[in-house]
Amino acid sequence: MIGRWLWAAVAGGLFGFGLVLSRMIDPRRVQGFLDLADWDPTLMLVMVSAVSTTMIGYRLVLKRPRPVVEDRFQLPTATAIDGRLAMGAVVFGLGWGLAGYCPGPALTAAVLGFREPLIVLAGVAAGSLLFDLYRRRAGRKPVR
Length: 144
Fold this sequence. Notes:
This protein is 67% helix and 0% strand.
């Protein structure tokens, strides 16, 4: 059990360090990427680096018989792009573009003592709670 938490902390710390190093905790980077008049390609370079690293990592890791601290790999089974996925992506993208933060950089910036991302994180929490309330009222299981 402790091994799982330790690996999660190491991975989270590495991710947070990468966000700080690439300055992705600065919302102006995201907004600069979306501003076609004064375009900043930094976010695109970080995304290309992250996706290519992930692709290589998955190919290497999935050759193993099992993960290091789990009994089995837990990979997504859903393959369909449905309306809920598309609508969630649009809402997430709008919030990300308006605030300049997605949850990872907002959490990292908040841990480093910045106040602004706390508002974003409160909005993420409120949106999650409202969606869970909606799901319960509709008689559906909460998303986990």
